[in-house]
Amino acid sequence: MDLMDPYEYVKYLQERNPAYADSFYLNEGRNLDYFRGIKGTDLQDTLLGIHPFQNYFLSLSGGSADTKYAISGSIFDQRGIIVNSGYGRYQGRIRIDQKVNERLAFSVNANYSHLSQYGTSPTMDGNGFFSGSLLYNVWAFRPVSAGIYDEQEDTGLDDQDFIYTLNGFNPVKRARNELRRKVTNILTTNVDFSYSFAKYLQLRVMGGITKTVVRAEEFNNSQTPQGSPLTKAGKDNGVSGSVLYNELRSWVNENTLSYNRTLNEAHQLSLIGGLTLQGTNTSGYGAAANHIPNESLGIAGIDEGIPIAIVSTSSLYTLASFLGRANYEYRSRYLFTASLRADGSSKFAPQNKWSYFPSGAIAWKLGEEPFIKPLSFISNAKLRISYGATGNNRVSDFAYLSRIRILPSGGYSFGGAPVPAAQLEVLGNRSLKWETTVQTDLGLDLGLFNDRVSLVADLYKKVTSNLLLDAAVPGSIGFVSAFKNIGKIANSGFELTLQTVNISSQHFAWSTNFNVAFNRNRILALSEGEPFRLTTASWNTLTSNVPLYIASVGKPIALFYGYVWDGNYQYSDFNETAPGVYSLKEGVPHYSIAIQPGYIKYRDINEDGEINAEDATVIGNPNPDFTGGISNNFNYKHFDLNLFFNFSYGGDVFNANRIIFEGGGYNNSQNMFAGYTNRWTPENQNNRYFRSGGAGPDNLLYSTRVVEDGSYLKLRTVQLGYQLTDKLLAKTGLRRVRVYIAAQNLLTWTKYEGFDPEVSKFGSSALRPAFDYSVYPSARTVTFGLNITL
Questions:
Q1: Close Cβ partners of 238 (under 8 Å, ≥ 6 residues apart)
Q2: Neighbours of 430 (CB within 10 A)
Q3: Which of 323, 507, 626, 674 could join 341 in a cystine, given CB atoms 3.0 to 4.6 angstroms apart?
Q4: Distances from the Cα of 556 to the Cαs of 139, 460, 551, 553, in angstroms?
Q5: Residue 478 and residue 390: Cα distance in Å, rounded?
């Protein structure tokens, strides 16, 4: 991101915070022009760098007709974009397949992974304030030290009076000194038996266990903003640290009986029935302490500090499923499928544990019909129609039960003895039941010209009902929200995949794969008597109660909600009651604070003359019109080239970075984006950027000003390879050698002003999509690779 240079920054401070500018910059004979010749500090170049990664994979396989084995191992090591961060993975796998006799066979599969992740967190630090993000601190950091003549950037500190929050701390120093380490060990073992009772009847029994152990450590020494004696947090807490240990044990057992038979060469029947069982058991404990006296011990010295938290958790979950499926095919033309499964989950109360999910499908192979056979250009054609239901039980374990917490203090005396107090911590809901999605699909598979052109088209509609959501409850209950089954959502769309072999000759081949998808969602119902639902964005405590998303019956889910930006107030909107004193003209809309020329302006939707919550409306749609991709593969002799593009058209992104870094920062001494140098001034009256200090009230920050078009076209992957010729291989004794160079996230074409339009701070949340604030940028990688087959 382009940021203000020293001259632009000090000029901005003169307008926004004159006393600060005079005290720290415009002193000792320095004026504004002095800063024109000073080279600024842009910590993006230091914090976000180019770092190497390594990936090695080795496999060995072999055996006899009855016994086969495969052994593989891999090592992956990558340094992160952020300095002093990275990720490593060591993985090993072994598989043995044994045929005991004509009826009995089994396989054993074991997999072990060791994962290590370290580095400062690029996301919020947990205090819910916008300044807790690492990238905020990078962008906000001053481009020139307040004590210009010394090397304050080495310590990350200015004058002690300035360091009163985390904002003044050098984020590079923070990244180099914070300990954030997470180590995960995963061991998975599966055993699979199959036994044939007869030629057409087979039993399969599979069992597996997985053990996952996670240890997470955090340590803030005196060289971090959380532990430095020069910050408020450091003064309050001192050196601090925490350790968290979690163990997850999961198991699965699948038992199926299958029957497959062909009758009179015209009828093919396949039946399968079975029972599957699975479960997880999780446990964990941890501790945190501050005021650790000996920081040289690191996390090992946590026991010497003052305990501030001790946690212990335990939970379990089980799922049982009965399933049955029948497939019938007549003369290889007409296909019928029917299935039914019953799932029972421990996450729901006894009366709602079980739910039933039927499905069915019919297909017609048109290409096998006599009236299609003469059409030689049609090599394959099939029509499909299907209907099916699936379930979702993604809520916490025992979500139907309320949870009581025993408080460590605040109890009472009973019978002369202290009795600890109890508090209802989580409100359960015994009415919770399975969320259900019903989908209908109509499809066409078509192959032309000996399958040189292949087309797959699908038209679908999905309706999800009884959504499992954290919904509002009456305040009289004592809780703000609880999990409930509410509402119904419909998704409908069209998906098309086209594969073509454009050129196929002895030395040159070119093929293309193109896909495009159109999806529309619509809310069919919310809670009873609830025509719409508002959702906040958890990124800033100053706007924690201000909604950004609206879900309305009959409309798409999670539309952006806020105010229509109407430029800036200009002199023509005011009466000059005295020299330099302005009051709004009658009929010009106003909001809750005193307004001056150059302040941000919003549209008065209800025309009552006042900008308030009654003027909030839909200001954007994060759902794209369509998405897709195109891949081209070229082969020339021993060279191969792959180019993959993907795209998204339509769909808005809410760029909250601009709220903070285009004149809206709450820290009057932070830096701004370079674009804000074109802000409104009496000499530069414009409607693009409001004047310094003219951001308006906090409750009006969400507006169309920062809603941007998220359309993009990306060159996602490029790979060029070369396979050694047989003549060269004959000299090496190797079967196959291929060298390649590949690049990912190489180019992006977009109008979006942030790092990446393909962004979502809140992950895959359907209620809070397409929100950008200090999100970790996507890595552009270049890989040099070598594949060898012995």
A1: 227, 229, 290, 291, 292, 305
A2: 13
A3: 323
A4: 34, 17, 7, 8
A5: 34
- Alpha-carbon distance 639 to 722, whole Å? 5
Tell me the per-residue pLDDT of 110-122, one tens digit each, with 9 for 90 and over: 999 999 999 887 6
DSSP 600-617: EEE--TT-SSB-SGGG-E
Query: For position 163, what pLDDT does the model report?
Result: 40
- The pTM for the full model equals 0.90
Q: Could you read off the pLDDT of 455-484 as tens digits, one per residue? A: 999 999 999 999 998 777 777 777 777 888
Count the Cβ atoms, other than its own, within 10 Å of residue 705: 23
Cβ-based neighbour number of residue 528 at 10 Å: 7
Distance in angstroms (rounded) separating the CA atoms of residues 362 and 335: 6
> What span, in angstroms and rounded, lies between the C-alpha atoms of 360 and 328?
12
Residues in the chain: 790
C-alpha dist (Å) from residue 720 to 381, 505, 634, 743? 35, 20, 9, 9
The dihedral built from the CA positions of residue 605, 611, 615 and 621, taken in this order, carries a sign that is: positive
Contact 751, 709 (CB under 8 A): yes
Q: How far apart are CA 716 and CA 643, in angstroms?
A: 8
d(CA 458, CA 463): 16
Interacting residues of 714 by C-beta distance below 8 A, sequence separation 6+: 645, 646, 647, 745, 747, 748, 749, 758
Give the containing element (helix H, strand E) for 582. Answer: strand 581-584
276's tokens:
């599957």
Closest CA to 102 of 65, 70, 69: 65
Which pair of tokens denotes residue 142? 């001053």
User: Smallest Cα–Cα separation from 400: which of 461, 462, 485, 332?
Assistant: 485
Q: Answer for the pair 156, 150: CB distance below 8 angstroms, yes or no.
A: no
3-class secondary-structure state, position 296: helix
Residue 470 neighbours by CB distance under 10 Å: 13
Share in percent of the chain as helix, strand, coil (round to 5): 15, 50, 35
What SS3 state is found at 405? strand
d(CA 342, CA 327): 19
- Over the stretch 755-778, which tens digit does the pLDDT of each residue have? 999 988 887 788 889 999 988 778
